[in-house]
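My main concern about presentation is that the manuscript never shows what a single data entry looks like. For the editor and my fellow referees, an illustration may be useful. For illustration, here is how one protein appears when written out as sequence plus structure tokens:

***
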Amino acid sequence: MKTRRRPGSMLGVVLLAWTGFGFGPVLPADVAGVWEVVFETPMGERTYITSFVRGDAGLNVVMTTPQGRELASTAKVQGDGVEWTVVVSGPMGEIRMAFKGKVEEANMTGTVSMDEIGESPFRARKISSSPAGVPRGYSLPLIDLASETGRQAVVDREPGQYLGHPTTVLLEDGRTILTVYPKGHGRGPVVYKRSADGGLSWSERLSVPDNWATSLETPTIHRVVDAAGKKRLIVWSGLYPARLAVSEDDGSSWSPLNPAGDWGGIVVMGFVEPLKTPGRYLAMFHDDGRFFSKDGKRTDPIVFTLYKTFSIDGGLTWSVPEAVWTGSDVHLCEPGCLRSPDGTELAVLLRENSRRKNSHVIFSRDEGATWTAPVELPGSLTGDRHCGKYAPDGRLFISFRDTTLESPTKGDWVAWVGTYDD
């Protein structure tokens, strides 16, 4: 699934009404599914993810705007499977979309006519045969390793104390693993440990700077390398202000937590992804209005915002965060990033915290500059805090807390195994 969009204002809230050329038969069933429609306007490209589901009253249409808003309609379609016309009515006036191309080839072009800007080309591509109503559960084979205690190693345990939310980093020797986690549920003093044998055994809790005890959120740890090849480790601690600690010696010693800027957020950072330019990194986090600024407040209804920030000096300093997506109908958060095997695309998997829908995914093909609108994932990839790695055979191992709406393992920590194309 490869999609993209350029930044810019949305075309406007739209209602869809479909008319045919009078060829007679309705479009074949191949039209059902999820389509990427990219308008090439004078203001730049606009990408709309459009789902078609056949229902009792005709064709149900759900269009997701570049800002993530879902617009639904029911329409009747006529055409011969090669050419048809769509009439869209909205604040910008009438929009006529003339499609050309065989539906079964899942690749079409056409022209769109808008009152204000005249005629512009567009392209449309089928990106999924699954309709908008993706399954709430899954039928993938399930392998249960819970009883195989020989595979398990206890990292830490303290009677009467909640210990969880760990993040880890594997150093270049392939054996040294460092982990940080809060002494408490989602907040509390940062605990730091090291394994020298690939996680089979763990050190005692290691000494850290005094102000790590003031951490307000789940810490995260990441490897970063600057343009000169200097390797560092960084630890983030979120809420306001987001704070950052640095190690110059592979974790033997650390700086205190220091503010990264006049901003904050929740689970800072969900990931820190190296980009193609040496020393440049992309990171993402989310906020619900309370912690991005010093006097932030949560609104009613609650609005979630996904932010991106960049570093050009190997993770030492970070840009002022920019919003990637914002919305209240779903609560998308805790991003986890994967790069496609050919290196051209970034995919970010997102937790859906309102528990109304499955997890979602967004894509970028320009190193994080622009992103597609969110698309709902299947039930088998629905969970919290997706963390993915490629196995030696090229398959992905994506682990997360299972929050699938219909699942025999709901609430457990699970892993999904498949390919990037899957």
In short: The chain is about 0% helix and 45% strand. The two ends are 9 Å apart (CA to CA). Residues 1-29, 88-93 have pLDDT under 50 and may be disordered.
